[in-house]
Amino acid sequence: MIIVRRMAAFGLIALTLTGTTLATASQAEAHTSFGAGLATGLIGGALVGGALAAPPARTVVYGAPISPVYAEPVYGQPVYAAPVYGAPVYGPPVHCHTAWHENHYGEVYKVRACGI
Q1: Cβ neighbours of residue 24 under 8 Å, at least 6 residues apart?
Q2: How many beta carbons lie within 10 A of that of residue 17, not counting itself?
């Protein structure tokens, strides 16, 4: 039922846009037809707004209206574990320098060489 309603709403929107375009599109003349386009847009907007704001149609089966049934969530509260942080680990100081290397094609490039 919702699909039909959406399709009707989209159809009305397309019809409104088409009507507004056709009402305002004319040959070049000295006067404007802004009022006609505005009136067409307002009327179309009122029709689409009325269609979208209307309450949904109720389906009646055996004399009782169908209403949605909502269930409680099946999960509990989230469980968060405490973060585990150890003491910082410091190693011996590392001394780095820049070195030039050559690959097997003869191209020279710079690398960072670190030793302990």
Answers
A1: 33, 34, 36, 37, 40
A2: 13
